[in-house]
Design brief:
heterodimer; A: about 300 residues; mainly alpha; B: about 280 residues; MetI-like fold; about 75% helix
Chain lengths: ~300, ~280
């Protein structure tokens, strides 16, 4: 087990360094700089600014000083929000994003499984049909349209839910619903397909021949095996939640990581972009790690140590 | 069973017909569209759908229907081009890694793994920054981030095929490796590859529209459906039609591609049942 943790830790460090290196240099390849506002500075002032932020040094020197700063726990100050440390901005922005992502994941797993099981159990019925209709809609509807339609209906027409921001509980309902729809649909479809496949396997026939009833077979025997492919989906789903949150945060004006990331990229706010990139990388790595743990917990045949 | 198969085929017929119509509309946009996509003040400003402007007009009095028709060209072109780019690059990488194994496999797959772990949207955003927010930038951004999925799929399939008798037979009669890969193994894998392509195209269209929607995609005067939705979003509470119509166009396209993929999978690749419509 310890060996497994060490291996994953090394992998994580390698991944983060590659990610940071690629992002750092790609970002500098992009035309434009952090201080190219509408104002045209006199050359001396421009040079002073560059010197203050170390932008006049060769690129590799800048990179190595940045790396050493990060290793000392300093993500520097933002170029755009002058005087504000990047860690502070990320600390503020990570709260709504994690809440949004976590709630959406919870909602999509619970209801995805529920709809998937229902559809497989009542196969061919109106339940099956409506669950799968919802699923295909959830996969194909772009989330900005879902979000907008929800706002138009619940905020504009009924006037019962706030249309934007992330303040009290009622303001969280619409964004969470919007973000969860796609993963919910994917999980529901996957659960249904695998459950139906498993119901044809030999050990299920054995269970029936022992005289067990439908629900015992389904919940005690079939479901556990059906969960395995669903758990493997959680990795990509966690990643797609991060992607989706960019859009949802834009639609609902939530001051989360996605919003800050996009504006920081547009502003060429190098320290903030780099900090955000590391943050996203760490979140993704933790997600994948948790998925692997869950995987071996559900399917004891998969030993953590044996995985390469 | 028979009736189900027929139904599936019906699904295939309907979805491919819808897609064909969409492609024709996109190709013939200059002939069909009542106005130029950038012609301003052809009607009243911000009008909801009325006679003559079936989808209404935008803030500059441009005809939304014409803009959506022209937008279809961009959205579909991005989807097709990126998916084919990913198919070619991914297939070549995956086939070589899977067939030769050993050192080649290790080197190629570690490159693939690096791309796989990187947050895709982040990479896409950086690419659009460097290569500009025109067609080429978007194309590279999405293509560069999706080919790895294809590479992994093809590698796994080729590794399976490598042990089969027909490959051994090919080697026994002295065929070159390249001819075994490209003339014998890959043609056998056309089913799963087509299926993955039909899921990849809508995902790429969606990714492009996400990028454009958050303001990092194609820029005016180019207006894909995502760009149009982004423009419409600003005044959505008062003029919802400006956002809903581009969104609906995207929805119909996505729906058709997904049904096409589902039915193709049932017809061409009955063994696999695992959906690949996961998204970026």
């Amino acid at each position: 087990m310890i060996q497994f943790f060490l291996k994953r830790l090394t992998q994580a460090i390698v991944t983060l360094s590659i990610l940071a290196t690629i992002t750092f240099f790609l970002l500098r390849l992009a035309p434009g700089g952090p201080f190219d506002g509408d104002k045209i500075w006199p050359a001396e002032i421009q040079a002073n600014i560059n010197a203050k932020y170390g932008l006049d040094k060769p690129l590799q020197t800048q990179f190595f000083t940045w790396v050493s700063d990060v290793l000392h726990g300093d993500l520097r100050e933002s170029f755009h929000y002058i005087g504000t440390p990047v860690t502070e901005i990320i600390g503020d922005a990570v709260v709504p994003s994690l809440q949004l992502g976590f709630l959406a994941l919870l909602l999509s797993v619970v209801f995805g499984l529920l709809f998937g099981i229902l559809a497989a159990w009542k196969r061919g019925s109106i339940w099956d049909f409506s669950a799968m209709f919802m699923a295909i809609t959830g996969i194909t509807l772009p989330s900005y349209l879902v979000g907008t339609l929800l706002v138009l209906f619940f905020s504009n027409y009924l006037g019962i839910l706030p249309p934007a921001l992330w303040e009290d509980k009622s303001s969280m309902i619409l964004p969470v619903l919007t973000l969860s729809l796609r993963p919910l649909a994917i999980i529901a479809r996957m659960t249904r397909t695998t459950l139906l496949e498993i119901m044809h396997s030999d050990y299920i026939r054995t269970a029936y021949s022992k005289g067990l009833d439908d629900s015992t077979v389904l919940f005690k025997h079939a479901l556990r095996n059906a969960l395995i492919p669903v758990v493997t989906l959680l990795g990509p789903i966690a990643a797609s939640l991060i992607t989706g949150s960019y859009v949802v945060e834009t639609v609902f004006q939530i001051p989360g990581l996605g919003q800050y990331f996009i504006t920081s990229v547009i502003n060429r706010d190098y320290p903030l972009v780099m900090g955000m990139t590391l943050m996203f990388g760490i979140i993704l790595i933790i997600c994948n790690f948790v998925v692997d743990l869950a995987y071996s917990w559900i399917d004891p045949r998969i030993r953590l140590e044996a995985k390469d | 069973m028979n009736s189900r198969k027929l139904l599936k085929n019906k699904l295939f017929v309907i979805s491919s017909a819808v897609l064909l119509i969409l492609c024709i509309l996109a190709l013939l946009a200059p002939l069909i569209a009542p106005y130029e996509y950038d012609a301003v003040s052809v009607g009243p400003n911000l009008s909801p759908p009325i006679k003559g402007f079936i989808m209404g007009t935008d803030v500059l009095g441009r005809d939304l229907f014409s803009r959506i028709l022209y937008g279809a060209r961009l959205s579909l072109a991005v989807g097709f081009c990126t998916a084919i780019f990913a198919l070619v690059l991914g297939t070549a990488t995956g086939a070589i890694a899977g067939y030769f194994g050993g050192k080649w496999d290790k080197i190629l797959m570690s490159i693939v793994d690096i791309f796989y772990i990187l947050p895709m949207l982040l990479l896409a955003i950086l690419f659009t920054l460097i290569f500009g927010r025109g067609f080429f930038g978007i194309f590279l951004a999405i293509g560069a981030t999706t080919w790895v999925t294809q590479a992994r799929l093809v590698r796994a399939l080729v590794m399976q095929a490598r042990g089969l008798p027909y490959v051994e037979a090919g080697r026994a009669i002295g065929l070159t490796h390249m001819s075994i890969i490209f003339k014998h193994i890959l043609p056998n894998l056309i089913g799963p590859m087509v299926v993955s392509l039909t899921f990849q195209i809508p995902n790429n269209i969606l990714t492009e529209s996400f990028l454009s929607f958050v303001g990092l995609g194609l820029q005016p005067p180019y207006s894909s459906w995502g760009t149009l939705a982004n423009e419409g979003f600003r005044g959505v509470l008062s003029y919802p039609h400006l956002m809903i119509f581009p969104g609906l166009a995207l929805f119909i396209t996505m729906l058709a591609f997904n049904f096409l993929g589902d039915s193709l999978r049932d017809i061409l690749d009955p063994k696999s049942s695992v959906g690949s419509s996961i998204g970026s």
